[in-house]
Automatic annotation (TrEMBL):
Record InterPro entries: MFS, MFS_Cyanate_Porter, MFS_dom, MFS_trans_sf
Domain Major facilitator superfamily (MFS) profile: 21-436
Lineage: Bacteria, Bacillati, Actinomycetota, Actinomycetes, Micrococcales
Name of the protein in its database record: MFS transporter, CP family, cyanate transporter
Subcellular location: Cell membrane
Length: 449
């Protein structure tokens, strides 16, 4: 960006802490809880199974819960947000995460474990939707920096829980290991509740003054954030959280570009949630590692997402390297799976590193949601289309992997299935690499958008 809004944002940038320290702390804590809730269970399932049986079906359902909840609550959360406001819905979402994590640590059987996990991911699904608007509301002048802060926090919280989960379970028990993350989520409630209380008092005191300020203000000087409970003034114009236009959304079903991005997103999500559910067990069974080392390997898998989240957007936006990034991610995934299949006891960390680079498809898909649409309205529609399909597909595979393992008493066919997923998505990656928007796709086939 070479001017206009970019210059306005830069010139009007304020220190991160000025008047919004609670928002900064709250966003970081929420971002940490969103991923730690997903990554903290599978490393200690062996410890849980010592107290009560946890079948492969239950593990598969636990692995399928995140994408299902993300899809369902991704649709419901905007409705709640419009009715109650960002902060109030965020408090409820964080409370669900904290309560679910604590209940999960108290589970007495596989049914209660699964039910508590569903509560956790209901909150996480809402949090995924709410976090970007919260960043925009409080940090409109520092969007790039704050997006990096919260995406890096999420990457860190992907590899930290597996790193400490098993040692903590060994020393203090699996209930303490699981409940710890609920404590972090509960702490995340503090800044948001504080802001709700103080903002309500400030809104009552300042309402007449703000009405006067709005009268006669020049265009572009200050605009109201339509998503806020309170008035927030930013230099970049209003932030819209309007839903996707149904007409635009309907057109996407016939566009190869939209389907290509959706399938890339689906492949990335499939690899991620299958790994969160099954990778420690796979490594224990085929690699002969201990549960503690399997947890470290899952942490290593998550760690590989950190350089991907930092480098992939730059490579795509600045260097138009969509296809090279895509094929490198596919190749790395196939190398990692080949290692698991043919040389699982030799160089296992290396295979995990390669396999961990395959979910580099995730930041790739997120960037494409922005650059493959001309307008914000189209981008919202494309995002809804891609995530609905992607999470629906990803929800199937953790359960399917568990069923295949039970049926064959082996990990060979499940691993070959993941090989098939990576190979099958190659045509979609090629199409997604075309330098055109969904509008251009439509105009080539149907005329005017």
């Amino acid at each position: 960006m070479g001017g206009g809004v970019a210059d306005l944002v830069t010139s009007g940038a304020q220190p991160l802490w000025r008047g919004r320290a609670l928002a900064l702390i709250g966003i970081v804590l929420v971002a940490f809880s969103l991923r730690s809730a997903v990554a903290s269970l599978s490393p200690v399932l062996d410890h849980v199974a010592e107290d009560f049986p946890v079948s492969s079906v239950v593990v598969g359902l636990i692995g399928a819960a995140p994408p299902v909840c993300f899809a369902v609550f991704g649709l419901l959360t905007p409705l709640f947000e419009r009715r109650f406001g960002l902060e109030r819905v965020a408090v409820v979402a964080i409370a669900l995460i904290a309560a679910g994590l604590l209940l999960r640590s108290l589970a007495g059987d596989s049914t209660s474990l699964l039910a508590a996990t569903a509560v956790v991911f209901a909150g996480v699904g809402s949090g995924n939707v709410l976090l970007p608007p919260l960043v925009k509301k409080y940090f409109a002048d520092r969007l790039g920096l704050m997006m990096t802060v919260y995406s890096t926090t999420m990457a860190v919280s992907t590899f930290v829980p597996p790193l400490v989960a098993v040692p903590l379970a060994d020393s203090a028990g699996w209930r303490v290991s699981l409940g710890l993350w609920g404590l972090f989520a509960a702490i995340a409630l503090v800044p948001w509740i504080t802001m709700l209380v103080t903002n309500r008092a400030d809104a009552v005191a300042a309402a007449p003054t703000r009405s006067a300020d709005l009268t006669g203000s020049a265009p572009g000087d200050a605009t109201r954030d339509a998503t806020a409970d309170d008035d927030v003034f930013v230099a970049t114009g209003p932030i819209s959280t309007a839903p996707a236009n149904p007409r635009v959304f309907g057109r996407l079903w016939s566009l190869p570009m939209a389907w290509a991005i959706a399938l890339v997103f689906a492949a990335s999500s499939t690899l991620a949630y299958v790994s969160f559910a099954w990778l420690p067990t796979i490594l224990i069974d085929v690699g002969g590692v201990t549960p503690a080392n399997a947890g470290l390997m899952l942490s290593l898998f998550g760690l590989m997402g950190l350089p991907c989240s930092l480098l992939v957007p730059i490579l795509i936006v600045r260097f138009q390297a969509t296809r090279p990034v895509f094929f490198v991610a596919i190749a790395c995934g196939l190398i990692g799976l080949a290692g698991f299949l043919f040389l699982p006891t030799v160089g296992l960390p290396l295979w995990v590193i390669f396999f961990g680079l395959a979910p580099g498809l995730f930041p790739l898909a997120l960037v494409l949601l922005s650059i493959r649409a001309r307008t914000p309205e189209s981008a919202v529609a494309l995002s809804g289309f891609v995530q609905s399909i992607g999470y629906a597909v990803a929800a199937v595979f953790p359960l399917l992997i568990g069923l295949l393992h039970d049926a064959t008493d082996s990990w060979q066919i499940p691993l070959w299935l993941l090989v098939g997923v990576l190979i099958a998505v190659i045509p979609a990656g090629w199409i997604a690499g075309r330098r055109r928007t969904i509008e251009e796709d439509w105009e080539r086939r149907h005329g005017r958008w």
